[in-house]
Amino acid sequence: MVKTIFIDIDGTLLNREHVFTQRNKDVLNKAHNEGIVITLCSGRARDGLLDITDKLPFMPYLATLNGAYILDDKGNVINEHYFEYNTLIKLEELRKECGVGLLYFPEGRWAANSDNKEYEDEYKIVKRHGIKMDILEWAKTKRVHKYLTVGDKERNQKFMQRAKELFPDLAIVPSSSRYVEVNTQGCDKGSAVKDICDYLNSDISNTYCFGDFDNDIAMFKVCAHPIAMANAVDKVKALAEHITLSCDEDGVAYAIERWVL
Known about the structure:
By secondary structure, this protein is α/β, with parallel strands linked by helices. Helices cover 34% and strands 21% of the residues. It has ten helices and 14 strands. The longest helix is centred in the middle third of the chain and has 14 residues, at 85-98.
């Protein structure tokens, strides 16, 4: 029966310097060659993963935007979730009231409002240029799959608390002290695991996942074998079957060789 591995990116596969190390590359390729299906399961857009996929000798599955835009190893869309326009209007009103910045994600790309200073910071991380356009202008004719606020912890907490009150059906989680991620109803990394297993006709009992932060919790609750990084937050570690080394110690490679292969 096919084994599937779902791997978060930042703080998990990449080290704290956002480097994809040779050891992690080699072990992922080894797992792929043994018939294991590798899925990069990230809050990033597809374009934000190209610097990783370009360094692999095979194309992994991609569960991007916390499961809002899922692609197979040929680039075919397996499933997608996107916002209604009126919801985006209300989110923008709340965001401005709370004083936090914005990044948004249409299909496989990332974007920022034209006056948004977060653009340059995101570019430094993903190393790919995004779109500069007001989100409500973009959404008049095209789809937005994920909404993300950027700011200090206090302002993001305020936004998250108010958003959960106003939008109880949306999936709202922090992905670091700097980011709050908003997805549509029923869309998270856990739903991505189910979508890919259904697509592959594979069993949940053969799923393994790796993560470190709150937006990985849904994935940890679905996968049969959740593995937390040593640098993970406590609530993620509490759900783990195993705790591996940190992202700075090639913890993904270590765990795959010890518990998966």
